[in-house]
Amino acid sequence: MTFKASVLTLYPEMFPGALGLSLAGRALEAGTWSLEAIQIRDFATDRHRTVDDTPAGGGAGMVMRADVLAKAIDHASPEGDARPRLLMSPRGKPLRQARVRELAAGPGAVILCGRFEGVDQRLIEARGLEEVSIGDFILSGGEPAALVLLDAVVRLLPGVMGNAVSGEEESFENGLLEHPHYTRPQEFEGREIPEVLISGNHKKIAAWRRAASEALTQERRPDLPGAQPLLE
């Protein structure tokens, strides 16, 4: 099954962008996943191809119109399409690795990239959009967030990563941040690779990595489920 991504945007030229390179790009070329960038303005009805209007109740900025967006979504995701409909939004539920894995295991996604002050709430409700945030900060539009989401998902598709185990030992996969990594040379500017990592004792290496992950998580992300008080 090919993972199909449909991105609704005012700037389709932003896609595939970085997704056309490296692992995601090779997978796109191989047909492991597909991407279509749909111009929202194509569904406007006036000669100016208007997609936004002033906010009800007054205030600064503009709001994307429900009627125009509904036509775009219905075109990209007709009745019977099982793909989730996502809206990249700073007020959305934070994107977690667990949700990324769920998306990677599915048929794809329809992703709406918001602009201006946001999207008419009636459209969100009428089309069942799942609001998704990639962090507590504001972007100029949903396109960079969509690229981030798709990059996270595509790398987990079967066959995209050369070593499937790589995806199982990364940050967030077990509630912890990933342990530090080292490689040659053994000495760099007076800093040595920890002795245990070159000992050949795989049991001790695994224990060291686990302890390092726990310490790093406790220090930087105590909110993660794998964070535990450090042992004396």
UniProtKB/TrEMBL annotation:
Cite the EC number. Answer: 2.1.1.228
Q: Which reaction(s) does the protein catalyse, per the Swiss-Prot or TrEMBL entry?
A: guanosine(37) in tRNA + S-adenosyl-L-methionine = N(1)-methylguanosine(37) in tRNA + S-adenosyl-L-homocysteine + H(+)
Subcellular localization(s) per the UniProt record? Cytoplasm
In terms of superkingdom, the source organism counts as Bacteria
Instruction: Supply one GO CC term from the record.
Output: cytosol
From the UniProt record, which GO molecular function terms apply? tRNA (guanine(37)-N1)-methyltransferase activity
Matching CDD domains: TrmD-like
Q: What is this protein called?
A: tRNA (guanine-N(1)-)-methyltransferase
Predominant location: cytoplasm
Protein family per UniProt: Belongs to the RNA methyltransferase TrmD family.
**Pfam families to which the protein is assigned, alphabetical:** tRNA_m1G_MT
**Keyword Methyltransferase applies:** yes
- The species this protein belongs to is Mesorhizobium kowhaii
Q: Which residues form a coiled coil?
A: none
Describe the task this protein carries out: Specifically methylates guanosine-37 in various tRNAs.
